[in-house]
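Quick one: structure for this chain?
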Amino acid sequence: MNETILRRFAKPMLVITPFIWGVAFVGMKNSLDSFTPFYLLAFRFSLAAILLGLVCWKTWKLLDRQYIKVGALLGTLLFLSYSIQTFGLERTTPGKNAFLTAIYCVIVPFLHWAVSKRRPDRYNVAAAFLCIVGIGMVALSSPGEGGALNVGDGLTLICGFFFAAHMVAVERCAKALNTFLITTLQFAFFGLWSWVCAFLTREPFPTDVPLEGWMGIVALAVLASDVGLLFQNIGQKYVPPATAAVLLSLEAPFGVLASVVMGTEDLTVVMSLGFVVIFLGVICSETKFSFLHKKKAEVQSR
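Got it. Here's what it folds into:
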């Protein structure tokens, strides 16, 4: 595809992506009524790999050992992220799952420090503090949970760590590789791990699945996986990291909005404030509030 066209539509892609993912939180929750977690992921990502591999068949000529190694690494990290997130989603609400997952944006600088020895700055530390406060507010406002995070919330926080590890791995290993092929290989290894775990854990094979259940799998594979992850990778190639992170973090409010609109969740005042604090933590980590400094400098120059 033409580089000029991709550059022009990079920002819109980074707005469409979190909207798709936000709605997908509710779709995933509903799909768990028909599928066990590993079979849900197995069908979703195997189908995503097949479809993307067919659409981008010309890129297969680039396949070599390096692509396989990186694809296996990224696919494994993505599998750990999504599988833990899916088990967490079984035990919490779509809105909380969406927001608590978003803390991966804060974890990334600290993981990057461990790998590259680049120390996080005061904005990263402040962002971590904001997220901890926000998570506490969300937990305390959850009815029937005794003022503490439940198992689903804890699993969601763990999945955020693996999402952060995946982002760091993409930054260090996959930037110079073909986006379409490496994404296809990620999905293929993801699907493979899902089938293996479904067999090892002896999850019951889904039978008697209604048409709506299969349609949900197709929608997740095509929109949330193929379109969403491709748009993310393409958008991040042409948009500055701080701007891209802010746009992608809209996944969380989109997830809550979809959950509330579809009637799967009630929003309390304290929970809403907690979500706002977490969102501020994400913005602080990724932008360092540079847009405020820019506006201040513009006022002073007048």
